[in-house]
Amino acid sequence: MTDFPHAGVIGNPISHSLSPKLHGHWLKQYGLPGSYTAIQVVEDALEATLRALPEQGFVGINVTIPHKVNVLRFADQVTDRATLIGAANTITFKQDGTILADNTDGYGFISNLRQGAPHWDAKLGPAAVFGAGGAARAIIVALANAGVPEILLSNRTRPKAEALKAEFGTRIHVVDWVQAGTMLETATTVVNTTSLGMAGAQPFRVDMDNLRPDAVVTDIVYTPLQTEFLKTAAAKGCVTVDGLGMLLHQGVPGFERWFGQRPVVDDATRAAVLA
Ligand code: ATR
Description:
Layout lengths: L5 E6 L7 H11 L5 E6 L5 H10 L2 E6 L13 E2 L1 H6 L4 E4 L5 E4 L2 H12 L10 E4 L3 H13 L4 E4 L3 H11 L3 E3 L14 E4 L23 E4 L8 H8 L3 E3 L2 H7 L1 H8 L7 H8 L1
Parallel strand pairs: 1-2, 1-3, 4-6, 7-8, 7-10, 8-9, 10-11, 11-12
Antiparallel strand pairs: 3-5, 5-6
The structure holds 2'-monophosphoadenosine-5'-diphosphate (ATR).
C-alpha cells in the first residue's frame, strides 16, 4: 500500500479503455500524487474486487461493461441519478468503508453538448434519440432533466423502446425503426446512441433527409470521431458534437472526488486521449 490515492477502471475487456490516458493526463497536468490503472475483472470476481480494492489504497473506480448494472448490488449508497438510470459508472470508496455508486454518463453527455454547441437549448424542440440500450437510458434521463419538451425514441427492437417509455414516462414517443427518419422533421436535438457507424460495426442507414439545419446533432460513437451520421448532419448545416467529449466529461466528477481537483476538459485533454 502506498500513501497516494489509487483509482482505476474495471471492466472486461478493458485494454481498449481510454480512461487511463484521461486520468493520467489530468494527474500530470495538475501535478497531483496518484495513479489510475485499467483492471480486468471477470463477472464472478466483481464483489471480491470491490471488497479488496479499498484495502489496496483505492479511493474509487470507474466501471464499464459488463459491470455497470451489477455493481449497484454491492453499493451501500446509490445516487438518485444512478438509481434512475439503473447503472453506475463511478464508484467511490469512502473513508468509513462504505461504497458510493454514481452515474456520470448523463452529466458527461450534457456537458459535452453544452461545450460543443454553446447555443444549444434543450427547450427549443423535441429530441430524437436513436437506440434504446444502456447508453440511451442515461441520455434519456439527462435530456429529460435538461428540459426537452418531448423525446422521440426509435430502436430496431421496438419493445426495448416501449420499455423505456413505460419506465421514464409520457414525454417519450416511440417511433418504429422503419420510420425513424420522420423523427427528424421536428427534432432540434438529435442523438445516435446505437453502435451503428462505429468502426467495424454496420453503417447508420436511417434516412436523414428530413433533418432540420437548426438541429444540434451528436453521436456517442467516437471511433471514428467524424461518423457518417455527423458528416451527413454537418452537410445539412447542423452544428455537430462528436462523442469523445462525453467520455472526457463523464470522468470529471470521479476525478474531482478521488483526487480533490475538478479537472477541465479542453483541447489538451482531447489530444492526450487521442495520442
Ligand atoms: P449500449 O450500452 O452502448 O447502449 P447496447 O445496450 O448493446 O449498448 O445497445 C446497443 C444499441 O445499438 C441498441 O439500441 C441496439 O438496438 P437493439 O436494441 O435492436 O439491439 C442498437 N444496434 C446495434 N446494432 C444495430 C443494428 N445493426 N441496427 C440497428 N440498431 C442496432
